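Reviewers of the previous submission asked for a worked example of the structure-prediction workflow described in the proposal, so we include one complete record here. The input consisted solely of the amino acid sequence. No template or homolog information was supplied to the procedure at any stage.
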Amino acid sequence: MRKYLRNITIGATLLLLAGSCTDKFEEYNTNQYQIHDADPATLMKSMIETIVNIQQNDSQMQDQMVGQLGGYLCVSNTWSGTNFGTFNQSDAWNANPWNTPFEKIYGNFFQIQEATNSTGHYYAFVCMIRAITMLRVTDCYGPMPYSQVKKGNFYVSYDSQKQVYTNILSDLANAADILYNYYVETNGNTPLGNNDPVFDGNYASWAKLANSMRLRVAMRISGVWPEIAQPAAEAAVTHKAGLIESNSDNAMLSCGSQSNPYQLAAVSWGDLRVNANIVDYMTAYNDPRMVKYFNKSTLTGMTDKYVGMRTGDADFKKADAAGYSIPAYTATSKLMVFCAAETAFLRAEGKLRNWKMGDKTAKAYYEEGINLSMEQYQVAGTEFMNIVDAPTVTHPSDAVQKAAATISNTVGVKWSDSESDDVDGKNFQRIITQKWIANYPLGMEAWAEYRRTGYPELYPCIDNLSDCGVSSQRGMRRLSFPYSEAQNNKANYDQGVIELEGSDNEATDLKWAKKN
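From that input alone, the workflow returned the following structure tokens.
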């Protein structure tokens, strides 16, 4: 595996912010908030690259290794028997999704915070980036330092799970307001220009992403804190900047001079294959997007098929796993951050919750989500939309993994008008399943939604090497806090564990993740 494992000790050199980014937001003034001591374009570009990781090692350690728990990808290397898929990752691997975002965000964040005096569009922008990146951290670990961190002091008290999501929602809301106002009142000025690898500096597009992310976050906590979730979701839907609603709005991150990290890990390193879960679901549905998602297998006798690799296998040889299907990416393929299809599916779920999500019905938003995804990948989905019966999702044995399996908890695609429209029925399952397919390859998001909803059902772990009681069927529920927290931030770490209401291990559910 061509990467390094870093022992990241974030000490006095890590600058951390006191209070929420929502403090002191004022009406922008371009000259007043121009940064002279730091180049925002340079500082922000590297921060933007943390919302989904371009850097090859960071992508492998987070989006690929942890992301495989969401059912999209599978790491095809054994690394001496250590793997997230077998629930026995090393302490250093476990700490990476916490340490790396902090390391990559806060140095630049505080330069901008100080240069802007915590005001204006640049500061609103970096607060938004921090919120999007730290969402992935709290989704993995639960309580974490967010509102109390400040310059020169990392080891502070943790926000509770409820507090951290509330603060993330607030930062996204303020960013949507300020960035959109700036865009309108400057006639579309683009302060970041070509240094923005997602939207070429277009603040109106970033405001749409902020609103769409608010919708994602609100749905994450909808089952446990609806009093926070519903107002946030409804405000995002009605915001003047709008949402990511068409494929021309999609947030796609250019890799620039770097190679697409999924392609690199799959082709150059041989460390990544497609997960059997996504392949077998899409095969069962005869999904026309498969040709855009995967390459055909090179396994003997199976070269005419897409064949995924099951996660949680402790006994295979890397060379033997080379024949499984790989992601259909080139070195220059962009990385998806957020797509219009997800917005439609989120609105469909909101409708089932009786939230004010727009003029369409839950059914209409659901079908819009499927159509948008088909359009995104330039395939026809008419027949797909009319699948009524629930297909059987099966995985055959092969020469590498003699691990046949069947999933029973499936649904057809076509909406059922005869069912009640609520989050306890089959239509809800349809929404989550189709959102899961459309959001490929956002593995960390898929893992979060699987823990929240229980859908779609995933194959159980083949070899469960957990030492803390992780269920083979339910899978890992969170990541344990980095060992450095227990050593260097003991009092606050202890409070974080109390907030978990369970042990600091991978078998403890986060408060929003108890459905399945």
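The longest helix spans residues 91-116. We consider this example representative of the routine output the project will generate in years two and three.
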